[in-house]
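FYI - complex with adenosine-5'-diphosphate, inputs then prediction.
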Amino acid sequence: MSDQRLPAVQAANELDFISHSPAQTERVGQRLGEQLRPGDLLLLVGTFGVGKTHLVKGVARGLGADELVTSPSFVLVNEYRAGPQHRRMPIYHVDLYRIADEAGLTTIGLEELWDGAGVCLIEWPERAQALLPADHLAIHIQHLSETKRRLRFAPAGARYVSLVSAFKDTAFG
Ligand SMILES: Nc1ncnc2c1ncn2[C@@H]1O[C@H](COP(=O)(O)OP(=O)(O)O)[C@@H](O)[C@H]1O
Ligand SMILES: [Mg+2]
């Protein structure tokens, strides 16, 4: 999860940019959400209050979900439904902030969420480091100022390299 652990070969596929507002972060999530497919796994890395849930809100909107996206801090997993254009697939929104240890993780059945027919977004994925699949899209969010955030998309695996590339084309192309 840290920079040191990223293979050098993947750095070329990374995307690094600044969001200037919560609304912009949501739009970024929306553009990304439009590109997602069943089985996709997104890891949202960054400290408390940095904007992870805002990004998830955008992703859910991009997938055509009409439910209210809220922080799952108390229930650990929120489930939403994508719209008809995304075959109403499930959107699993996980927040591992309150997970104390590996024992707590096994009760959630995380593997079933990312092996499933839906997309899975995980806040505080560091808590499940040992369980996470090698292939995923890590999104690192860093606090720059009151309203500015640095977003770094770090894809691991062919599916996520092409996802970032497709996102780049729609968002910046
Ligand atoms: N550029 C930005 N992107 C996302 N959130 C921002 C940004 N600038 C300020 N914020 C604020 O940061 C907070 C992020 O909250 P939230 O998404 O719940 O964070 P997290 O899920 O990482 O704890 C919100 O209060 C939001 O208004
Ligand atoms: Mg959150």
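The mean pLDDT is 90. Residues 19, 21-22, 24-25, 46, 48-54, 71, 123, 147-149 surround adenosine-5'-diphosphate (ligand 1) (CB under 6 Å).
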